[in-house]
Amino acid sequence: MTISNDGPVPQAVPKATILGGSELHKKPAWWKEATVYQIYPASFCDSNGDGVGDIQGIKSKIPYLRSLGVDVVWLSPIYRSPQRDMGYDISDYRDIHPPYGTLDDWRDLKAELKATGIKIIMDLVVNHTSDEHEWFVESRSSKLSDKRSWYYWQPPKYDEDGNRMPPNNWRSFFGAESAWEYDDATDEYYLRLFTRTQPDLNWENPKVRKAVRDIMSFWLEEGIDGFRVDAINYIAKAPGLPDAEIIEPDIPHQPAMHLYLNRSKCHDFLRELGDKVLSRYDVMTVGETPHVEEPDMAIQYVHPERREFNMIFQWEHMDVDRIPGTLLGWKQYRLSEFKAIMSKWQITMQERGGWNSLYMENHDQGRSISRFASDSPEDRCLSGKLLATFLSTLSGTLYIFQGQDIGMINLPKEWGIEEYSDVVSEMHYRQEKERRQRESKVTDPCMKDVVEDIQKKARDNGRTPMQWSGMSPHAGFTTGTPWRKVNPDYVACNAESAVTDPDSVLNYWKRLIRLRKTWKTLIYGDFEHFAAEHEQLFVYKRSLKGDKDAYVFMNFSDAPIYGVSTIVPEFEGDLVLGNYGTPRDDDVVKSTDTLRPWEARLYCARTEWKDYR
Ligand code: NOJ
């Protein structure tokens, strides 16, 4: 395969397909129907009391996962790593981080998961390695090293006063500092778009691409069922690494995303992986691709004929409450904006033959109940079920992040900034402080507003230990001292009590997951949206030829909504599931007129009633 010249112009998506977009979208595949459960290993379950989750702990929870009904487990990185970015900095791709266990432990886990019918996918982090990876250690040792060109090395520049400066003005993705790190040993800089311990691999080098293919083959031969591919739209950098335009003259380092994100050459690299490795296996792939907002751009990654990914994690809905240009700056968003984003992704994929990933949480996000509904004690359960209804009734592959299944929420508001230890939280705080100093703004020295934003959006929120039990110390996550404090609300919110409470968020998720296994409309059906401008109500219809139509009515507010039946005048259906209680036989209603606060109702069109309950 030849790798084409790079350029910022998006490539064309094949038009001459045998199947049209809608047929491609509806073409069945196991990974389209799957429910994926994401495990964040450090915080899932600790079996040996060292305070850190591990593989034996995960194994002990297989019965729990099985009863939830998930089809696939996605393991966030468990590879050997100095953990400067919680395993997204890998120092050995073929070994396990010792506190988590050994490769043999992992093999046992895989075998046990498979024996219960659960598939396993792994995180593939290959935009960068750890600076402790032997490739980088060798690369930094000398300008003459064989591995020098495996990374991006450049000599310094000097200003007119002779001060040393980075080779270009790119800003790191994680903050306002330079994307380049100076290395004394050889008097050169290396590129690192994330933290200074995560040097970027040089994908232009065919040996790097071959090494990545070898890692993939290693794990595929171990019998895994696919990859979640980290930060993959960063791998192609603009030729010559030119300076970015100066749009913030007060700061030396400029936003340069257009010079390293979604470059057309990235697609060539991905197709090479598809052709040479992935096409030999029946696996699923999901690319993590921040800043893919245009459908044309997204389709290039996921159109089946381009052989890149099955789907991507687009971030547009996750960014709806972020102030652009900041890491964690929070803004109030309007429901109509959120609905427009979700509808766009539903319709685009449906019309153009792509496939969605459905997620509201992961290890990079605040908890969805706290961000998108209400985490007050009286609303939390309703909110968890509302969001579960929403996510499970859209077209795409469903992803549930650990803890989302029981309705976990953000860190307590009383916890101070010292509890937020993630690199992004620290950087956001520092960056805001510097910005205020630069702008000579007199502010509250505690920066309360910044702390409040962090409380809403920090990645730390998704990383607290899983709450297994209300009775045991540390929520039953560990018998030792947990690596991160457990959210004290575990007494009310924990898996043990959720299992036995028929009205728990957990049991509600179970019903939805079961429904998706039989009601194909929920997976493949077309999406039609009503009352797009309404700022409280989210209503849509899903329909699939030969199957029953679904109608979803949701109130995304704490006030009742009246007159809902006028929104879809021809609608007549039977309640299948609602978050104000399991429907009884005499509770089957034809239409709904009032939606209570945070209420969600899923209906099956009356004309074609089948008992999905
Ligand atoms: C995306 C991962 O999800 C995130 O946790 C990580 O910090 C960056 N990529 C860098 O690998």
From TrEMBL:
This is Glycosyl hydrolase family 13 catalytic domain-containing protein. One of its GO terms (biological process) is sucrose catabolic process. The keyword Nucleotide-binding does not apply. Residues 38-463 form the Glycosyl hydrolase family 13 catalytic domain. It comes from the Eukaryota. The keyword Hydrolase does not apply. InterPro entries: GH (IPR017853), GH13_cat_dom (IPR006047), Glyco_hydro_b (IPR013780), O16G_dom_2 (IPR045857). It comes from Parascedosporium putredinis.
